[in-house]
Amino acid sequence: MTRSRVAVSALLTLAMVAVGGVANAFSFKDVTKGFHDVSKAISNQGSTVVPAAGTLEVAFSPDEGSENLVIKVINSASEKKGGEILMLSYSFTSAPVTEALVKAAHNGVSIKLVADYKNNISEDRSGKARAALSALKTAGADVRVIKVYPIHHDKVLIVNRDTVELGSFNYSAAAAHKNSENVLVNWNNPKLADAYVKHFNRNYSQSTPFETQY
């Protein structure tokens, strides 16, 4: 029996017990086994377990430090020779974030960015996203766009393959100053970074080069 069928069977069993229609037909052992089967089926759906390590730092929006924390993470890439930033984004219009990335590129940091095509190109009515992406590419970054998913909704920075920034925060002025958002940084956790690098590489392989648009 497949994992999905086990899960469905277990859920049906639990539902029957819950409504009392066959309350006497199942023992407590049957019920707990059902929970175990469901848990096992769910846990085997491709998730990755990573040991806790490093230091966590959080910030929030609007105007509660989220944008500053993102920039802090970007700036940290320059502290290491041969620094690297791998970035996944949905919205990319933030001037301060773009400026920090351009500065990092000028300091020799290798930068790769994969951004959502629809949000930043085909529906970029203001032109801010294309201008930001163009500035970053002109600075020497490897800038790409992706359109194989309905929405490329990742918001992730991976710095020097040991620090990860993630959360709901889009790289935009609205995320910094208007919306309720959160940023979480796990400093110095190479195993977590490795898991995100694999996700980045998958999306990078499905993306196409961005052409500068001024």
From TrEMBL:
Family annotation (CDD domains) = PLDc_Nuc
Classification via SUPFAM superfamilies: Phospholipase D/nuclease
UniProtKB keywords: Hydrolase, Kinase, Lipid degradation, Lipid metabolism, Signal, Transferase
Enzyme Commission (EC) number: 3.1.4.4
User: May I ask which residue range the UniProt record assigns to the signal sequence?
Assistant: 1-25
Cited PROSITE patterns: PLD
Give TM segment ranges: none
Biological process terms from the Gene Ontology for this record are: lipid catabolic process; phosphorus metabolic process
Please state every residue range assigned to the domain named PLD phosphodiesterase: 148-175
Provide the reaction this enzyme catalyses: a 1,2-diacyl-sn-glycero-3-phosphocholine + H2O = a 1,2-diacyl-sn-glycero-3-phosphate + choline + H(+)
One GO MF term on file is: RNA endonuclease activity producing 5'-phosphomonoesters, hydrolytic mechanism
- What's one Pfam family here? PLDc_2
What enzyme class is recorded for this protein? hydrolase
- Reading the lineage from the top rank, the first entry is Bacteria
Q: What protein family is recorded?
A: Belongs to the phospholipase D family.
Q: What is this protein called?
A: phospholipase D
Please tell me the species this chain comes from.
Novimethylophilus kurashikiensis
